[in-house]
## 1
Amino acid sequence: MDLGNIASLDFFYPEAILTGTILLVVLLDLVLTNKRALGLVALAGCLLSLWATLQLYGTSGGWLFHRMIVLDNFSLFFKLVSLFAAILVLWMSRGSREVGEVHQGEYSAILLSSTLGMFFMASSTNLLMAYLSLELVSLTSYILTGFLPHNRRSSEAALKYLIYGGVASGTMIYGMSWIFGMAGSLDYARINQALLQGEANHLGLFIAFVFILAGFGYKIVFVPFHMWSPDVYQGAPTPITAFLSVGSNAAGVAILIRFFFPAVSRLGDDGNWMFLSGVEWPHFLLMVSMVTMTLGNLCALNQQNVKRLLAYSGIAHAGYILMGLVVLNNEGLQAMLFYIVVYLIMNLGAFLVVVIVANATGKEDIESYRGLAWRGSAIPAVCMAIFLFSLTGLPPLAGFVGKFFLFAAVIKQQFYLLAVVAVINSVISLYYYARIVKTMFLDFPQPSDGQVKMTAEAAVLLGLLSSMTLLFGIYWGPLVAFTNHSLSFFVK
Amino acid sequence: MTHPFFPVLVLFFFAGSVVLALLLIAQMVGPKRPNPVKDEPFESGNPPKGDARIRFPVKFYLVAMLFLIFDLEGVFLYPWAVLFRRLGIFGLVEMGIFLTVVVVGFVYAWKKGALDWE
């Protein structure tokens, strides 16, 4: 199916609904006096778009808008992931004191624009479209990062993010120009054909891929494109940090897989993908993955600010997710998809507790978690422990299952070194995650530490996320089936 | 025998050596007579005064940004106008949607006070 502009609209409802909601929120912002209702309007738009996306899931797929974007289960999977992230973050923002002080209309509209960008990132099959969608996500992320008024750290983070993002996307588009020079087209399918004929220069392709990887890597946050993340994560409003850590990470993985698998690789008969360029990619990605997880974990060891700690842990998790790419087969990709869903749930949960504690104490350092279990309700502390142990990868939590699939995929392809490094890293990560748990449960609160209360909304969300973390830890069958079903690319 | 990109390498080498040669010649042959007036920062021939970092109204940025946005969006009307008859009712509807989005943006900017100078 190769559809033109008008015919594509039938398969474009999720994006159209989101766009409509953005405009509606902007307009309502001018007339409504109750600004808190705007968040609800945005939430309703997201739910409607979620419904439309689910309607499309499982259809046969095709190219839309003259092969600019593609409709297949893979893109719909990532649309669902970014929608879930947006919904949970909008929900989380309603209870955040930090966000309560900013302009609600712009906040919701820009958050939805970012989600829309992620939709296109997941589905673009043209280098130009890939670049534009990545820029849409980036620009909205810069604004959201610097959203806190009169907050120097937030502004500084936004500026650093902007400069870093500008350099990364400039490098990426330069790499894309090389690909265009060698393949003669921006269209993924045509690039694939051109590479299949084997006329492209291997060294040239290698250089182009490294450049492009700079742009994708900066979204996924892997070394050496990770430098922005700790400052941005610390400076941004906490719900936005949560959104960046799961949403833009997932969208980056989507664009990376879409480019490196259907576009520049070929699926062999044995179920393994082969890069067409003849360059030793697995070893390159293997190094990147190992360095990323090691650096993330080692830097996290000594952090005092919980958001900063979670930023470094996010770098480490990007390294784990990359493990699935190294093995170059569908099993690895499926493990990546599974891990992304699990990471979304547990990481958003951890950030939700950060929001709850910051609402009560106004602080984000580990000291403000002292004796959290004995200050008012014990529920946030217990849930935080669940999320953190799940991030470490301890059974019987969802993080363990996610890591198990990744490790299994790696070991089956006999990348033993990578598996050993990943296990050692998991052990290292236990130290800093458990340090927070120890502070919450074993340290006693000082009289100066205030009580921690949560709103009913936050409590519901917390219960939902922690029960999902527990549920996927013991009953992961449906999620595996879902990711397995989602791994279908439309190529012809 | 040679690689197809060999001429490019030669070009790189040539460009680099020209730059280097010009710098070296200027360094060796050029006369150097520094005086205090020459060492001052150049400000269109006037004697420089005040600090380089001064405050100026940020309002100009806002106007420039709005101008850029609406100017570019206005430019999109031209290709449509040229092909108006061939695009027919489809073009009209599509342009209507596009203009709605632009107008929403304009109303937003207006209501939020982006057009007020004071």
## 2
Amino acid sequence: MIEAKRNTLTMATYRRELAGLVDEATAASSSDVYEVQAIDLALCMAELFNRDKLQAVTLWSRIATGLEHSAKENSANALTLVNGCLLHVQADATRAACNDRLGGLLHVASEQSELWARQWSRWISGHIYIIVAKARAQWRERNQSDE
Amino acid sequence: MSNSNYQLFVVHRAVSPITHMEGTTGNVAVLMRQGVLYEGSIHRVPCLTGNAMRNRMLREPGSHLLKTRLGLYGHLSAHQDRFLSSGQERSEKGNSVDVGLKRRGYELMPHMRLLGGTLPSQVIEGRAQVGFGVLCCRESRTARAAIIPHDWPMEESDLLSYQSMIEFRQYTRKSDDVDTHLRDGEVPDHSMMIFGGYTLVSGSVFVQRIDMRGCRDIDAGAACAAIELWDGTVGGQKSRGHGHLHCEYQLLCDGATVEAAPLIDAYEKHVEDHKQAAIDWLYEAVREPTPQGLASAKN
């Protein structure tokens, strides 16, 4: 005797399934915002890159791997994602505490929901090279204007 | 017994990562996808093919049910077993249509009427049209609208993009053959082989429609019985081991929702009542191919 255990689909159950897939982040944010924040994070990493312990020539490759690993490991929390990135470049705590860019980034990250963090980490994972390339362009532009 | 147009609307939720593959590039498994138009451009959205679902969800569990109820396990030739399990292939040349045999088969075996099959020299068409499993994502909105029952409204909010549901997984594998081919004194090389592929994350949802035109109650019952017995696996490979779905379905008859339970009961009763006639038909229709027949089929 076969029971019809799976014959339970109704409009309500279908809607409930879809409710778990609603992209709340699209209303609150867009890929432009993710990009701005991700580039800001990469620039933070460049500013706080520990040149005493790490080779300067590895700056951008280390930033890329830091973003990649941290986005994978800390996908549910934007703050721990930032922290993971800074650990990867062995940032000095004193310099990190004084960094204005990092302060702004942490302010934005602390206000975001878990869903936003997930979307952001996913966006970062899929755009590592774009982030690094754009961050480096901004980095060079800023250094040239300083000179 | 009157014929009606039945429709199954099935919703699948992935309870493990899905690795339903299109193929490989190098040692990377690529997901099966279908193109959908969204905001003026084509997006290749992961999907479940109708063919795979037809086999895994309907044919395999349906044939298992038949073989169990008719006591056929251990009593079938390879060809008869394949006819029930996979539809078989032609083993004789020509296309000799035996209308009587086909009609009796349809009457006795709703499973075959639903899914069709190939007798040695005759292709028997099935009534079930199994559609693709369409991933519920932002880009597939139009495709989903054509699948869900017409009186169900579409969701108002944007769903996640399919891109956010895809992950990359990497595995390592050691060949067990290495040690067995070693000569005396040779050191085993346990270097791992890396292989990987894309997967759809757990929690992804698919919608699917199965149309069964001109079917009897027992034919629809055969489809529902198969779905109830299905273990939920789809796609994947032995080495990766993914591909497990949880499904719920709704059965419609000429547009109105109907309960599946009475139809399943009717199908089970039909199988029981026509047990011997169905076995006789199977032995008569799917006879062992002769060497001459096989040779002529290949030419």
## 3
Amino acid sequence: MSHAASVQSERTSTGLPTGRVAIWWFIASEIAIFGGAVACYILLRMRHPEWGAAARHTATSIGAVNTVVLLTSSLFAVLADSAAARGDGRRAGRFLLLTSLGGLAFLAIKAFEYTREIQHGFTPVTSLFWSFYYLMTGLHAAHVLAGMVAMLAVASGARRGQSVHRVEFVAIYWHFVDVVWIFLFPLLYLAS
Amino acid sequence: MSHHAPQGFVRKYIFSTDHKVIAKQYLFTGLAMAAIGGFFAYVIRSQLAWPGHAAVGYGVVSANGYNTLVTMHGTIMVFWVAMPVLLGAFGNFLIPLLIGTDDMAFPRLNLMSFWIFFLSSLVLIGSLFVPGGGSAVGWTVYPPLSAQASYSGGMWGVNLWILAVALEFVSFLMGGINFITTVINRRAPGMTMFRLPLFVWEEIVAAIVFLLSVGPLVAGAVMLLLDRLAGTGFYLPSRGGDPVLFQHLFWFFGHPEVYVLLLPALGILAEVITANSRKALFGYKMIVWATIAAGLLSFVVWAHHQFIAGIDPRLATAFSLTTILISVPFAITIFAFVATLFGGSIRFTTAMLFAIAMIAEFLLGGVTGIINGSAAADIYVHDTYFVVAHFHYALFPVVFLAPFAGLYHWWPKMFGRMLDTRLGIAHWLGTLIFFNMTFLPQFNLGMMGHHRRIADPTAFDFLRPGQHLQVLSTIGAIGMLLAQLPFVVNVVWSLVRGRSAESNPWKATTLEWTVSSPPPAENFAEVPQVHRGPYDYSPPGVGDDYIPQNSAPDGDRPGSAARSDPSDLEPVPAE
Amino acid sequence: MSSTHLPTSRYVAIWAVLVAALLASLALGAAGHSRAFVVAVFAVAAAKAGLVVAYFMHLKDGPTMFTVLLAGAVSVVAVLYFGLVPDIVWVHGRMGSP
């Protein structure tokens, strides 16, 4: 009666929420994945200075718009996080929805951009530069999509007051996706 | 005290979130894959000893068939035996018990990890039956051979192989995050990091090394798949790509991976050796720091696999240095184990026999690694059977001898039954004798110039003088496989008619031995309170020759030196 | 232990700085293509990432473990990159390279 029950799902030896620990380790593994792809790109880009010409054909203005879209969605994510920390699940859920909308806008703009590029003859097999472009932005887009799905799942629970602590974890993940893009943008659009 | 309703068969044994059940699922899947991988090894050896003759139970081995066998043997043993047994089975079963908690931090993630792993094994086996046959491009899957189906003659075999490995990576990434988070956040009160049994430290460092090293290969594998399926040219020189890039990406993971396997094996040894020497681990903290150092160093040795690939010679110098360096922390650990044995009251249980054998055999693997790791010497032996012998002397102890030690040690805890000692000794003796018979001659073969991955040695005149060594090696391999029969009989007999196991048959100190064999679903009826380190053996002035980790602090024990510090305990709720 | 949370206005201010940094990098990218400009553009990107990591991901006042972890993961990638430069970038004379 006085000894702690054996089920320890609330236990935290460090005082940190277990989910936060987990999400950071997950992000560390993702840094290795994206970092690997980016490192390969930079290596081969430095070997092939002629890729500069190809890089000029990426649509800088579209990329810039997408950057603003993601930055804004990150803002909504941190506001969702703050709301959740205050215990306001409904507000947090609403901000997460806005964040997801940002993600959706990003994907839509990206789709439009891909279409345009393919129509101009720049496909994944046009040259190795374009292979990397589609690889890295494609990988990133897949993570945007996964993030959206996760956020919508957490938002639907949070709005009803369930598992509000998960808002923080999914927001941290979303910021990571934003940070990756912060590096991809100059790599693929500006550094020509 | 469980508050779950009685569970049906499916929830209890198939889709269970209980780490102990999941551990056994990993164990039996791994052992089944070991049988397949071992069978492939037998066919390979049969072909090498008697080229062109039908291998009994398989048939005549074609050249491409040989390549497939070699590819699959290596792939299966590393990814579908070593990983699930060392990390999936032992890690899953022991970590929650050793740290004093009821399950992993994310039990449903754990469930998903296993079933993704199981799916990956189905995909891998399935890849053998597609048109074009299984992958025959080596477990290292180097482009350009692997980058275009027309080069290797197999399309879907290689694609499915890549998919299977990708799924396996996902499974162990999820598992790794689970392990790390659990150890960080679910330790019982009083279980500080430096009171953790060494096994837990080894598993965590291994999980961290895996988690950080596999990423670039995931990217590289996607690039390889795109080359194969989409016509890109990441690894094709004609398109501006570079095949050596893939080699680097592969080995950047591939080398840390062998330490991902070695560390848990050393962890198993620590537990078995301390319990069976009745002695505290020598230099526990030193071993922890050495393990962390080895984990860090493991990231800067990879290119020793590429010394003759045409890499920049200056890289070869740098990587020779780091490779020699990394032997130091492992030497420290092994010597610490030997120092633990020294002066101990040795108990030759079957587990202990396997543990000591592991050290002896692994030493041979380690010292031959020095030759391979020095670029100048490696030029001669690279890609020969010298390397094959080296890595089997390193990997077989890690993948089989240490897990056997672990199985004989923890079988009573896992299944509540004892294993027979005489069958265990027969297993041990047969395995050791025939293992050495198989691989010792291969050092000679390598020095003779016998290259790897050759289906027919008799096609080369200069190799003919070594053919008797091939036959000797094959007899050893057949013997090795037959030597596993006592183990199979032992296991089956134990499960069906074995003697019931008490909770602490080995009189060991760590927390898993404080509960019944097998443990109840929730592991501990009450949260354990840890008061001391993990290896309080042969304490002076105490009747038993050991003190479990959750025994009351020394201050309460008359006549013994206070060795624990209860000040870091959380307060227990008042009665 | 929960993360430090700033008032909404602070986060909006940081967002504004991020967007301004984006505009700055656009200007830099358009201004020139020499090495100095490329370095500057990536410096801005790093600064932006730093802001997101420190404030949006709460690493500034968070436990050291996460910062160390982040640094560790980035270091691993750096080791990969620098280890590969001799072999992948400096390849003049190798078959198929300029």
